[in-house]
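Kindly go through one protein, given below as sequence and tokens. The question is how this chain folds according to its tokens.

***
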Amino acid sequence: MKKLTLILALAQAAVLYAAESVRYKDRLFDVEKTSDVVYATGVPQLNKLHQLSITFLAFDQNIYFYQNEYSTENVDLKMDIYTPKNDNQVKRAAVIVVHGGAMIGGAKDKNSKIVAYCDSLAARGFVAASIDYRLGVTVTGEFSLNGLLKGNTYNVAVDSADYARAVYRGVQDVNAAVRYMRANADKLGIDSNRIYLVGNSTGAILSFENIYANSKDDFFDYLEYDGVPTLGDLNDFGEQGVGAHANGGVFLWGGVHDPKIVANNRIPVLLVHGEEDSTVLFKTGRPLQNFSLTGTGIPKAFTNRLLINLETPTLYGSFVVDSTLSASNGEKANQETYFVEGQKHEFYDNSDYTDNVKTKVFDFLYKLATSNKVIYDFGAITITEDNKGIRHASVDGEYNGSGIVSVDREIPVNDVVLERTFNTSGYSTVVLPFSVKSGDVSGAKQFLDFVGVERNAKGRWVVQMKRVWCDEKTVIDDIEQMDISDEDKEIAKEGCRNVSGADIVLSAYKPYFLQMQGTELTFSGAVTFEPSAKKVETVVDDWILRGTLAPRRWTEDDAELGYAYGYSAINKDNVKIGDFIKAGKDAYIKALRCYLLYSVQIMDDVQGVRRAPVPVTVNDLPESMEVVIVDRVHDEEKTTVIGRIDTRTGEFTAVPSYRAFDLKGRSVGKGRSAAGMYLKKRIASPK
């Protein structure tokens, strides 16, 4: 009986431990290792060792320098796979660990830290793989061991183009490893959309390129020159028909060959770097300029008479990558950083930082493995999928990066969130990347369409809008409070009732004026994102209401400057907050908004040719324009004045009454100027 009680107690303790432990965060499993799994075959490898490498091998140093790139042999590329033992999950996250070694050394099973990472990851429930990739660079210059023994001095060199070719081969191999894992996801028991990289030093460089480089065109032309064999395309080797980009990465002291390829990529990454790194520079420079034979096992008497001039291409380190990602993606930048002042290369060898690096790496991978995976990323639009296969969309109305909304196919999603805080005191503008029925929209009072700019009976220019849909009760309540005649009130009410149904379709990529009940616009049910339109605009005669698919800034030499109008940020002269006014220099508008533009080049709908531009200059445009809503009642169009436009100022935003914000979103108070424009800044807590 006592024995049974003990067994039950142990079983209960095991259950409690399992309940408290968390996959991807805690060690839960024993680990199984499968060695030398082939992930690509028939890959050309340099095979004519330079005498320098033969010398290193004599001193038990595997450092690979080659005589030329003509002599190759086809080889198999291999990985060691670490799996959690007795684990019954079949959709596990996977991590490929890429060793360092300056492209001339290293191996999948020789670095104790790489092996330790793989073991720790598998014990936490990941499937981990350590890979070998092609090593070796060509050197020029004569060398012989006998001559060195006789006291001769030698100078050999590695050209930066040949070093870049070695890196490119390594990127081909990392890409092949990712594609192998993805193509064999079912066999390996992994989720093909949860494959991550951990790269160390050179491994981080190769991993950077996997995330950010799309094709050979992203690399410099000097990779291919007369007298060397072609390297082939970036994804020539290994499995085909699946994507080569990992779904996230951890880059330990790495860099990228060109920051331009980083730009708008928002794949989540963790950047770890010592700010005093002189091997792979934290900012910008040529890596390995401190390369030395000291410590390689070569006798000091020899190293003093052997100079290896290692020329490497310029590399842009973690600081530049972080800055580029932030500048290009604004608030949607998706990187984390751990930059340590005073530390050099591979500072996880410093005991003060070892645990910090490990903790940050494992915490980051845990977050990646347990969060919704990003399956589409289109500028201000992000579409994710959770562990149950349900798709969620986020439309970032505050996005201030440089990415363009470029949806390339129909994409159904189960729900959508518009991350934008609207004002409730005036009118806003909006472009929806999907069509939706009015009955599925909450938070709005009314949507309105642009119908032109005309002169009224008094000769004043007016901007005309008409209701597309309205919430009958709230809009009629507003009409009752307006300072207009009873007759005009009845006309406006009737116009509202005519467009208050629940089945009115609000179209994708159509510019709308919008009046809100509250600060949030929400949508119920599923929607389908539609392919981006080439032009998002409503054209009426010489005026255009133009929608933005990316943030837009008017510079001093912009052809639209002086012809573009948007909402005012302040009360000034005859201008009220929410009125349209002319955009000034450096004015700015975010994505999925609209602005009004006078166009001097209009397509004639009848003739199908461009007619002569109307001879109107900036100074000819009116000082102010009334803004009216056109209501159609009993086949007659009636108008209601809702504001004025003043073209003399340069502010360009919509905010609550008596409040203005500068370009950084900071409140500047009642009646003060907000230079430029800043559409729909969050109202609840302005910075």
